[in-house]
């Protein structure tokens, strides 16, 4: 039994254009063609696509995915073992997110020294009090939370405006890189990610590369963050996550 490119795109939740690209670069070449020359995918092709999407979800570049899947010494069991190891590592990273201060917590602390009028002047339509209960429950006992509260307790409206301006400038920088076609693992994108990390450390709490990676994962895994970040440009949250991961690898490998 075989399936068309449109059917496979529907199964896998990818675009037809993505499958065409995978075919063009030799990453996933369909095993058959119809009489009219249209792509036809078999069971083995679907298995390979599943492997590709798994590694892509973990942030592997396409070139590295191809090298992994085409390794003549690797068998299906070896891939499963590797995937299990990668998933375990990712689960551990996500668990450590409990020690990080998410953006909503930062927003909550931002309101400490502001009147309601000043708060909305600085943050626009975003309400810093929206996640107060969740933030206190998830991160209230962490060092990062305490550190952020200590640092921000004396912040003035001007301080918060400066921080917001810095964040807006970084957003524009990331968007410009996306629109220029810069890969997320390019030097320019990684430099922007490094400035993002340093800004958190400077203004809120000490943010190492592991914690920064967890924040990047959260931007994609939590739809609230994805929706907010992607307002600047669709796909920005994923692009930032990938740039943050690449930057962490650059500095820790």
Automatic annotation (TrEMBL):
<dbReference type="InterPro" id="IPR047057">
    <property type="entry name" value="MerR_fam"/>
</dbReference>
<keyword id="KW-0805">Transcription regulation</keyword>
<dbReference type="InterPro" id="IPR000551">
    <property type="entry name" value="MerR-type_HTH_dom"/>
</dbReference>
<protein>
    <submittedName>
        <fullName>MerR family transcriptional regulator</fullName>
    </submittedName>
</protein>
<dbReference type="InterPro" id="IPR012925">
    <property type="entry name" value="TipAS_dom"/>
</dbReference>
<keyword id="KW-0804">Transcription</keyword>
<dbReference type="InterPro" id="IPR009061">
    <property type="entry name" value="DNA-bd_dom_put_sf"/>
</dbReference>
<feature type="domain" description="HTH merR-type">
    <location>
        <begin position="1"/>
        <end position="71"/>
    </location>
</feature>
<keyword id="KW-0238">DNA-binding</keyword>
<keyword id="KW-0175">Coiled coil</keyword>
<feature type="coiled-coil region">
    <location>
        <begin position="77"/>
        <end position="104"/>
    </location>
</feature>
<dbReference type="Pfam" id="PF07739">
    <property type="entry name" value="TipAS"/>
</dbReference>
<dbReference type="InterPro" id="IPR036244">
    <property type="entry name" value="TipA-like_antibiotic-bd"/>
</dbReference>
<dbReference type="Pfam" id="PF13411">
    <property type="entry name" value="MerR_1"/>
</dbReference>
<keyword id="KW-0010">Activator</keyword>
